[in-house]
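User: Earlier you gave me the apo prediction for this protein. Now I'd like the version with 2-acetamido-2-deoxy-beta-D-glucopyranose bound, so I can compare the two side by side. Same sequence as before, with the ligand SMILES added.
Assistant: Got it. Here's the input I'm using:
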Amino acid sequence: MRSCYFSMFPILFLVLLSLSWAILAQSHHKFLHCLSSFHSEDSSSISKVIYTPYNSSYSFILESSIRNLRFSEPDTPKPLVIVTPLHTSHIQITIYCSRKHELQIRIRSGGHDYEGLSYTSEVSFVIIDLVNFRAIDVDVENKAAWVQSGATLGELYYGIAERSRTLTFPAGVCHTVGVGGYFSGGGYGLLFRKYGLAVDNIIDAQFIDTNGRILNRKSMGEDLFWAIRGGGGGSFGIVLAWKVKLVHVPTTVTVFTVSKTLEQNATKLVHLWQYVAPKLPHDTFSAISFRKVNSSQDRQRTILASFQSLYLGGVDELIPLMQERFPELGLRKEDCTEMSWIESILYFGQIQNGTMDILLDRSYKTTFASPSFKRKSDYVKEPIPETAFTGIWSKLYDVDAKFVRISFVAYGGKMDEIPETATPFPHRAGNLYKIIYNVGWEEEDNIKSQKYLSWIRNFYSYMSSFVSKHPREAYVNYRDLDIGRNNKGKTSFVQASIWGHKYFKKNFDRLVHVKIMIDPTNFFKHEQSIPPFFS
Ligand SMILES: Cc1cc2nc3c(=O)[nH]c(=O)nc-3n(C[C@H](O)[C@H](O)[C@H](O)COP(=O)(O)OP(=O)(O)OC[C@H]3O[C@@H](n4cnc5c(N)ncnc54)[C@H](O)[C@@H]3O)c2cc1C
Ligand SMILES: *[C@@H]1O[C@H](CO)[C@@H](O)[C@H](O)[C@H]1NC(C)=O
Ligand SMILES: *[C@@H]1O[C@H](CO)[C@@H](O)[C@H](O)[C@H]1NC(C)=O
Ligand SMILES: *[C@@H]1O[C@H](CO)[C@@H](O)[C@H](O)[C@H]1NC(C)=O
Ligand SMILES: *[C@@H]1O[C@H](CO)[C@@H](O)[C@H](O)[C@H]1NC(C)=O
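And here is the structure of the complex with 2-acetamido-2-deoxy-beta-D-glucopyranose:
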């Protein structure tokens, strides 16, 4: 019997395999048929925005906004269909047909998800790519704007700057990031110590649920409106557009970058920064980034710590402020540059010689972007002892990837004043700064990739005693599938509650309640979406 069973096995396996292919092809076919049953001859016809692997531009559309080539390999699962809706009805039809034929939907706005969750899936799936949903409507008089999810942060900045040089929106530096994902997970940037996160400045939204209903703040209710402002993308439904409050910026801002090597007392300065930066006035953004370099003097390896700041005012106010708060840094007038707010976005994006038009370039690759990368985040509540930095530097020396950066971004300011429960984003008062770990590489060589992934995981575990604990907090927009990873591949509530509490702390429970209310059958889901159950 036993040998018979074994000899039967490969045949059985093949039969099952071809059967599942047949079912797949069939559901694929039925899905397309379902979409085309809504076919109309007018300009709103959905057939103009459906791409299958047989359409010649399928690969171009798929790859157009992939930012992490780790998820663009030949063996990366690809969508059966990509839909790039022009009208809300196209989205409603796609949701209807995906539900009917049990295909998963992945929603993509800017495609910057660190783990590729907007364009890959382990099960048969369809991408709704919001690239055509990017209208921006600015109302200068009422200091508000509607922005559709498929717009980039750059398009939003540009749209506002065209109408006013002293109004803007508090968002991130990298201008190719999509509004849809960025707003869904919180969204920090140069102005967050002054005005809070992007989600702290959202006043209405247009949302589409599993039944294709279009809801706004009033009709969705305050629980769902709370959840979509920071609970992470892809869990509740599709946000089509957001109404945001615009904020004031002065006509002149000041920026500086001061870099110090270990020989120039970088360790002492970094240690001091932890006490100084979180208490700087709200008008200041302050960060440090670390990398390994060869000293320009003796070519010996060292660590370069770059202190970067934006100040909402002129250099004549900034110098005395830094003299008083951080004299050890020795900031001089010649280290500083005065510019407009919009120019400062290019400055921090390391865009040299660029004009404002670059903000409209959706495919712009920054000089510091790597084709493949892995990032992680941490929050720090107590200053790291000066002696511990030696260990951090030696970890940095340990890796030879093309791009390795550790950054500290100072919290405090307005972030301390907003309660933890105001939005799902819980990392507020009590945090001195956030750490970003980033390793990037060009090689497609799998062994090298594994080496870099091990390096960053090892670094992360080394840092555990210096960062937040119980839970060790993490930023949901720095999506990290290492957290609470389940080796069986299925999401159990136990797993979900591990990453859930790291990303959202106690807000996780309220997010689960909202999920049960709006999507009890768990139609909108991915590897780290909010589960519709408690155990
Ligand atoms: C180079 C770079 C720089 C970054 N800089 C910053 C920064 O300064 N500050 C910061 O806070 N973050 C930053 N991030 C992280 C960024 O905020 C997140 O990766 C964000 O989720 C990206 O949004 P997206 O629309 O581009 O991504 P996508 O990959 O399109 O979406 C991300 C997630 O949201 C879901 N989603 C997308 N659109 C919608 C929608 N309309 N409705 C519902 N769900 C949706 C997706 O399904 C996916 O799960 C950066 C990322 C990169 C790669
Ligand atoms: C993709 O191909 C199908 C079948 O030939 C066609 O109906 C559809 O219009 C094509 N899509 C686009 C966007 O051209
Ligand atoms: C570094 O610190 C020491 C001791 O405080 C000081 O003597 C020295 O001048 C500093 N070096 C630099 C380059 O600032
Ligand atoms: C530093 O020097 C070493 C040895 O000369 C070289 O291999 C390495 O690429 C250099 N690193 C940088 C960051 O320039
Ligand atoms: C910027 O312009 C200067 C002078 O025109 C040029 O030398 C430099 O290479 C340019 N830099 C970039 C990144 O294009």
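For your comparison, keep in mind: The chain is about 30% helix and 20% strand.
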